[in-house]
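Example record for the data management plan.
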Amino acid sequence: MGNSQRIGSTSNSQVGSDFEAQARAFFLTQGIALEEHVALDIGVEAKKKRHKFDLGSTDPKIILECKSHTWTEGENTPSAKMTTWTEAMYYFHVAPKDYRKVFFVLKAFSTKHRETLAKYYLRTYDHLVPGDVEFWEFDPEKGTAQRIR
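Corresponding structural encoding:
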């Protein structure tokens, strides 16, 4: 089995933490202060269990899942990563309905596919994305994010 660590990073968990910090900084420019690991009761029907979202706030009510995934080295689809995206969609689906739900992802463009990873996901997995989930792509070079859904 090959090494799946991001080239140039100390660890994949550090890549994730750094990306969450970029998301927090971006939303602060939008006037929204986010906290790390916001826990909410989620579940189907009356069954609930505590789940920690990457970022969030109770005032305003907002939860974020952050993913800094990229295409594979050969610009193939990172199938296992797409599974974690779909899992995040399910967590959003069973989260409290009065929360704003944001999926904040790295803008990862593929010249081979001529689209970003987020646009690829929305094109192929849109049937699994709840209608109230916002997709935002973050461009680390510019420090900006754009809502694409």
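Summary line stored alongside the record: The longest strand covers residues 49-58.
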